[in-house]
């Protein structure tokens, strides 16, 4: 029987905003329950996909106001969203820039795969609106590239 406590290496819900929240009720549940060491049962990673360039399939479908990138990776744990009205900074457990490859992401996820093999409950998911980069993140963008297939299964050998 699998242990009931979740592993600390899984992806999930919960975003901590860098600026001070207006009230404690606006903080994510994981922000409220994290201990002094900052560890929670849920880890959140963001992968920023490369922007579509002119001439790429789908580029013409992007409204002109969204053709300029607004997401800036600040470091391995934070990114900013720049709009004409404001700039907001968000902090995550890990931020992967557009230059990271599948192996780089898998290195971070590997702890979760190993915990799963030890019987822990693990969930890894890609969440976002259409065109946000879920398929890119999960490695289904180029099936001909062996690097993009089965990193989790390959780690079992």
Automatic annotation (TrEMBL):
The keyword Coiled coil applies. The keyword Nucleotide-binding applies. GO terms for molecular function: ATP binding; microtubule binding; microtubule motor activity. Pfam families: Kinesin. Keywords: ATP-binding, Coiled coil, Cytoplasm, Motor protein, Nucleotide-binding. GO terms for cellular component: cytoplasm; microtubule associated complex. It is found in: Cytoplasm. GO terms for biological process: microtubule-based movement; mitotic spindle organization; spindle elongation. Gene3D superfamilies: Kinesin motor domain. Residues 41-157 form the Kinesin motor domain. InterPro entries: Kinesin-like_fam, Kinesin_motor_dom, Kinesin_motor_dom_sf, P-loop_NTPase. Coiled coil: none annotated. SUPFAM superfamilies: P-loop containing nucleoside triphosphate hydrolases. Residues 1-38, 138-157 are annotated as: Disordered. Residues 19-34 have a biased composition (Low complexity). ATP binds at residues 128-135. Belongs to the TRAFAC class myosin-kinesin ATPase superfamily. Kinesin family. This is Kinesin-like protein KIF15. It comes from Neolecta irregularis (strain DAH-3). The lineage of its organism: Eukaryota, Fungi, Dikarya, Ascomycota, Taphrinomycotina.
């Amino acid at each position: 029987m699998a242990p009931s406590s979740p592993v600390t290496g899984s992806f999930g819900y919960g975003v901590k905003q860098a600026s001070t929240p207006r009230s404690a009720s606006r903080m994510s549940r994981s922000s409220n329950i994290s201990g002094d060491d900052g560890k929670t049962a849920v880890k959140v990673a963001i992968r920023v996909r490369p922007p579509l360039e002119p001439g790429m399939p789908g580029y013409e479908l992007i409204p002109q106001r969204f053709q300029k990138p607004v997401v800036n990776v600040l470091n391995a744990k934070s990114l900013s969203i720049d709009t004409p009205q404001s700039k907001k900074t968000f902090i995550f457990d890990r931020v992967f820039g557009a230059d990271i490859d599948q192996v780089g992401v898998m290195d971070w996820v590997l702890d979760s795969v190993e915990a799963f093999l030890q019987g822990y409950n693990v969930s890894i998911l890609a969440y976002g609106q259409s065109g946000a980069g879920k398929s890119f993140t999960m490695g289904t963008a180029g099936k001909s590239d062996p690097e993009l297939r089965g990193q989790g299964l390959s780690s079992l050998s």
